Amino acid sequence: MKNIFNPVYREDYLEGYSNGQNPYMKMSANKNEAYNFGFEQGRLDYERLNGKVAYGIPQLIVTNKVLEDFLLAGMLGMDIDSDGYSGFQIDVIQKWYQSGVEKYNANQSNYLLSILEENGIEIA
Questions:
Q1: Which of 35, 69, 74, 81 is least enclosed by beta carbons within 10 angstroms?
Q2: DSSP codes, 1-55
């Protein structure tokens, strides 16, 4: 890996990483080392959350933002909807949700729900 403080290298790496996160993209053979390394890292992160691309692309894509939402749902004691996720993804989601459940505090949830109600926000 080259110097990540080089702005050109970093830009190519981030472009590759972003494209690697897209399961429909394939690595381009004519790109440079930074792009290729970024693509590989992005694809590894995608497959860590969604399963191997070779096994098919799931209906819904799990990202870190999605996992944070499930963690928060667990912390607030809310039910979750897992429709549209593959078995692999549900295993990943379940770990994050369970981590949130372990941090669940009923008093904190009630306090948050009362603040939301005061501001006209309803939680179904």
A1: 81
A2: ---TTSHHHHHHHHHHHHHHH-TT----TTS-HHHHHHHHHHHHHHHHHH--GGG
DSSP 3-state percent helix, strand, coil across the chain (nearest 5):
60, 0, 40
Q: What average pLDDT does the structure give for the chain?
A: 88
Place of tokens 């992160």: 45
Angle between helices 7-21 and 33-50 (to 10 degrees): 30
In this structure, what token pair is assigned to residue 71? 């963690």
Helix (H, G, I), strand (E, B) or coil at 124: coil
For residues 100 and 112, the model is more confident at: 100
Q: How far apart are CA 89 and CA 1, in angstroms?
A: 31
Tokens of residue 118, six digits: 């005061």
Q: How many Cβ atoms from other residues are within 10 Å of residue 29's Cβ?
A: 6
Phi, psi at 23, each rounded to 5°: -65, -15
